[in-house]
Amino acid sequence: MNAPLALFSLTLLAPSVPSPAPQNDDPDEFEVSAERLAWSELSPKVFDRRWTLPAPRTVPGRDLLVEMQNLLSLRFDAEGANGTRYRCFGDLVRASRDLAVDERRSWYAELERAAPELCSDWGAGLTELLFDHRLRSERWRPSKDYNADGFLIADSWDMRGEGAPWSDLDVEPLTEQCATLMRADLASIKAAENDYRVYLDNIGTNYDEIFPVDGSYFVGDDPGGRPFSTLTIRFRSDLPFPFSSYSTRLAILNRFDGAGVLHTDIYSTSSDFQWLAGRDVFLPVATSDGEWIAFLLVRHFGFDLDGVPDGPNNRDEAIRCSLGNLKRNAERLFGEYEGAPRNEPGVLRDVRVFGSRD
């Protein structure tokens, strides 16, 4: 029962967001044009911000976003077997980036010897994030939770204590937490996310249809001068027997916080769901010498299909499906690009949105 969160930076130094290549000049393919929108007109007309997830978390429990922020701020000093010094998480990402599977295992064993305290404190998270070769396999399926798929998943977050609208729901608003490394720039991630022509071919999906709604793509600037964008998509998906299918309109908001970090919020109030909401936070990963190397994407996502006995396993599978396909597609686009990373906020104004009518 997959529900999608595949969403879920001013002057560019290189060409703007890559334009996905036309697919066989199909006349059913289309592009949704962006229109300008004032921030004051955003909520609740276009995106009701009451449905954005609470941040920071105020109730007790594990907060994966805070953990990943702490990981990125962590500083240490370890020397690898070849004399390379590691001083932050970004150094580890750079050192392991191009290693084959067996080489990466050997490298991590050396790291455990060089930095035993680091690996004792953070080892489970490091291995979950740095080892993602199963995701790249042609045999990867999001229905399975592999040891080396690159997903760090934390316990569910019960948002009943976070106030309205969560406290007003008739069901438990349980949100799943997941983090993964995206070795792709912001332009490639958003280009992959917004090419809805390919979603039907993504691994593990069961869409009957999915497309961006014409006239729903808006761009603008918030009161701080930071770009934002909104989009609405419609989709319908099959459900296992004895259930039939579900459909919804999903509202998406891309926005930057005061630190320049991109947040992508989603929600739906469609009748097939008791509730559906989520958030992606794109934490930039840099090396100790200041080189951008990746994004650490932290996702919170929850839903409850009306009349369907779904649970944490279904939500985790939905996260692995949408995040896994997004990661594969975005990293492929970035690998094909071969230019300077495009991570400036202004990238958001140049994202092209594509769909198809089947």
In short:
By secondary structure, the chain is of the alpha+beta class. It is built from 6 helices and 14 strands.
Any overview of this molecule?
The protein has 358 residues and is an alpha+beta fold. The chain is built from six helices and 14 strands. The chain has helices at residues 64-73, 89-96, 101-114, 116-130, 186-193, 312-337, and strands at 29-32, 35-36, 78-79, 85-86, 152-158, 174-182, 207-212, 218-221, 227-238, 245-256, 262-268, 273-286, 292-305, 353-356. The strands form three sheets. Strands 2, 5, 6, 7, 8, 9, 10, 11, 12 and 13 form a ten-stranded mixed β-sheet that branches. The chain has a two-stranded antiparallel sheet with strand order 1-14. Helix 3 packs antiparallel against helix 4 (116-130) and helix 5 (186-193) crosses helix 6. It is globular and about 55 Å long. Mean pLDDT is 89; it is low at 1-16.
Oligomer: single chain
* Helical segment count: 6
What is the percent of helical residues?
10-25%
Helix-strand string: EEHEEHHHEEHEEEEEEEHE
CA-CA gap between termini? 22 Å
- Measured by DSSP, the beta-strand proportion falls in 25-35%
Whole-number average pLDDT?
A: 89
What is the number of E strands? 14
In the predicted model, the low-confidence regions spanning at least 5 consecutive residues are 1-16
Rg (CA only): 20 Å
Helix-strand makeup class: alpha+beta
Indicate the overall shape. Answer: globular
Described by strand count, sense and barrel closure, the largest sheet is: 10 strands, mixed
